[in-house]
Design a protein that fits this description.
The two termini are 19 Å apart. The longest helix has 59 residues. This protein has 11 helices and 28 strands. A hairpin with a 2-residue loop joins strand 7 and strand 8. By secondary structure, it is α+β, with helices and mostly antiparallel strands. Helix 1 packs antiparallel against helix 11, helix 3 packs antiparallel against helix 9 and helix 4 runs antiparallel to helix 6. The protein has a 5-stranded antiparallel sheet. It has a 4-stranded antiparallel sheet with strand order 5-6-7-8. Strands 25-24-23-28 form a 4-stranded antiparallel sheet, with no helix packed on it.
């Protein structure tokens, strides 16, 4: 009797002591990040049969259980990933929005100042001082676009560095998880190693900030940890390594890859999730989009001004030359095509039509018999280069293939990506500004055909008339006499008449008349007036936008994306707070509850101690009675 009481009292004291120790452990770790509340599960001992009856034999501590719920934890991981993506996205867009609101804002201001300088020059076309102002304002436009391109390029480089740092931390987490798994395997009671499991979950929580994470338990009490859409980062006590590999064909457009054994497998950037996804999206989509649009602005401004320069005469009576660098300079045209390593192809991209020019990347592939062009919207079209050299048109640009592609090659075409960094003003002589228009007031056109004098010769006055059915054209003198017999319209190349050359493109309607006067007319400002109209002429987006409108559209679009990212972050915060609350209900330490437990277990400890005292007194009484 006394022995049974002593045994049960001892077990009760030990159980209460373990409960008190666990409660103290909870209280001590109330502020420990990632700590999960622990509780002692007590069970009744197996009963004893004696004299046909069943007698209880006391209690024991069965296990120390960790407050944990797989569903709530998975939800927290997912909301952590979503919030991290939204937070990083908002931060990156905020940088870009700030840049557009400050440094890039000067670009339309500089353009407007250039137009103002042209208006001032139109009042006194021969004033060298006013001409110098026009050139200086042109240089400011070019410098502003150059600076903007430099900033965007630097942001791309900084984003690549952030990706590398993030990738390094993910690999470190993978190694730390392997160490935890090894400790779990070594522990004889690994499934009950609660503090070690808390450390494991903390690493998973951090990993969830960088990428989507899914966790599954293995039979050996370790875990498979996968990222993105199912790429295994950790499997038990083995881990893979993430790397950044050079992009193809652009090595700067690095791509994520995972080393699995001896193989290297690339991972799509858009299915990784978390901070990594936001960084990739900012670098590959947002910054590229901004650089493309700024490049389109540079091309639109430079090409439209240069075109008008070619349609006028300078102070020396010569046909105007480029004020800005030619957007179709052969070296610039070649740089728009990104060739794969080892390629011998010679591909150039020439800008042909500002109205149709669009932004984005185009993928040109060749399977040995057919060329296919993948458009920025994802559609694919077969193209057939023709002519000598072979060429084809797409979205306002012409792709010229001087040396053909090899079978299996892929070339990325970027018509506008680097244009903002390439624009400059090679003109240094203010006298070369073409103020005088060589098209006189007798010109009458309803079509949109481009007409340009390529060189001035002995013939200084003449007319180019298009037939009523627009099938032919003829060159006449100012009295209507034929200087050059009717020829098929449009002409294939330059037309030479009396030493003067001109080109006439498609787009004329029947009856159009181009009246040319190449004689020096002091004070003529006809071409300057046409330059002024560029400020409000919708030469972009199929006649819907001016050059400055394109900038305003970019600014508005980035503002909308910024607002969307901010809203997404707000939603992410609410969802994560809710998920954290659910986890806290299960795993969080409540000091009031722990204080109540402390008192309850203390009373149980004292009561069990009293049982031991009673057992001891009973045993002494029995011993004394037997003497």
């Amino acid at each position: 009797m006394g022995f049974d009481l002593l045994n049960m009292g001892t077990q009760g004291v030990l159980t209460a002591q373990r409960q008190l120790n666990t409660t103290s452990h909870n209280i001590n770790n109330v502020n420990t990040e990632g700590y999960s509340r622990q509780s002692v599960v007590q069970q009744a001992n197996d009963p004893m049969w004696w004299g046909g009856n069943q007698y209880g034999t006391g209690v024991h501590a069965a296990e120390v259980r960790r407050g944990y719920d797989q569903f709530a934890t998975d939800e927290l991981n997912l909301t952590t990933t979503n919030l991290s993506y939204a937070t990083e996205r908002e931060s990156q867009l905020g940088r870009l929005d700030s840049m557009l609101a400050n440094s890039a804002k000067k670009i339309p201001e500089d353009m407007n100042q250039w137009y103002d300088a042209v208006k001032a020059l139109a009042d006194s076309p021969s004033d060298m001082g006013a001409r110098k102002v026009v050139l200086e304002k042109a240089k400011l436009v070019a410098a502003g676009l150059n600076d903007n391109h430099t900033i965007l390029t630097r942001q791309k480089s900084e984003t690549n560095e952030a990706l590398s740092r993030t990738l390094g931390r993910i690999n470190d987490i993978a190694k730390e998880l392997v160490d935890v798994h090894k400790a779990l395997v070594k522990s004889p009671v690994s499934k009950h190693d609660n503090d070690l499991m808390d450390r494991h979950q903390n690493l998973i929580n951090e990993l969830s900030e960088y990428t989507k994470v899914s966790v599954s338990r293995k039979n050996d009490e370790t875990f498979n940890i996968m990222i993105g859409s199912g790429h295994t980062l950790v499997s038990g006590t083995e881990c893979s390594e993430l790397r950044m590999v050079n992009g193809k064909p652009d090595p700067q457009q690095t791509q994520l890859a995972i080393v699995e054994g001896k193989s290297l497998k690339t991972i799509r950037n858009d299915d990784i999730g978390g901070k990594m996804a936001a960084l990739f999206q900012y670098r590959d989509e947002t910054l590229s989009h901004a650089m493309d649009e700024m490049g389109r602005i540079a091309i639109g401004f430079a090409e439209s001004v240069n075109n008008l320069q070619h349609q006028g005469l300078d102070l020396n009576g010569q046909v105007g030359e480029n004020m800005f660098r030619d957007v179709n300079d052969p070296s610039v045209a070649a740089a728009r095509a990104m060739l794969p390593p080892g390629s011998t192809a010679d591909v150039k991209v020439y800008i042909e039509d500002l109205n149709e020019l669009k932004i984005g990347e185009y993928d040109l592939t060749f399977d040995g018999s057919q060329h296919t062009l993948a458009m920025p919207d994802g559609s694919r079209h077969k193209v057939i280069p023709s002519g000598n050299p072979p060429a084809f048109m797409a979205d306002g640009f012409r792709v010229e293939m001087n040396v053909p592609m090899k079978a299996g090659e892929r070339i990325v075409l970027r018509p506008t990506r680097s244009a903002a960094g390439e624009i400059d003003v090679p003109m240094t002589d203010p006298a070369k500004i073409a103020a005088q228009s060589y098209l006189s007031s007798a010109t009458k056109t309803q079509g949109q055909a481009p007409f340009n004098i390529t060189r001035a010769g002995a013939l200084t006055e003449f007319q180019v008339a298009v037939s009523p059915d627009a099938s032919q054209f003829a060159v006449l003198d100012m009295k209507g006499n034929i200087l050059q017999a009717p020829q098929p319209y449009p002409p294939a190349g330059e037309v030479n008449v009396g030493g003067t050359g001109f080109t006439l493109g498609q787009g004329a309607v029947g009856g159009d008349l181009f009246a040319v006067n190449l004689n020096d007319a002091d004070g003529d400002n006809g071409n300057l007036i046409r330059m002024q109209t560029l400020q409000s002429t919708k030469i972009m987006d199929d006649g819907r936008s001016t050059v400055i409108d394109v900038y305003q559209g970019l600014n508005t679009e980035m503002g909308v994306q910024m607002a969307s990212a901010s809203r997404l972050k707000e939603v992410g915060l609410v969802e994560k707070d809710a998920a954290e609350s659910r986890v806290a209900e299960i795993a969080g330490v409540n000091l009031d509850e722990e204080a109540a437990n402390m008192m309850k277990f203390q009373q149980a400890y004292m009561a069990s101690s009293r049982i031991m005292t009673v057992a001891n007194e009973t045993f002494d009484t029995l011993l004394n009675a037997s003497r």
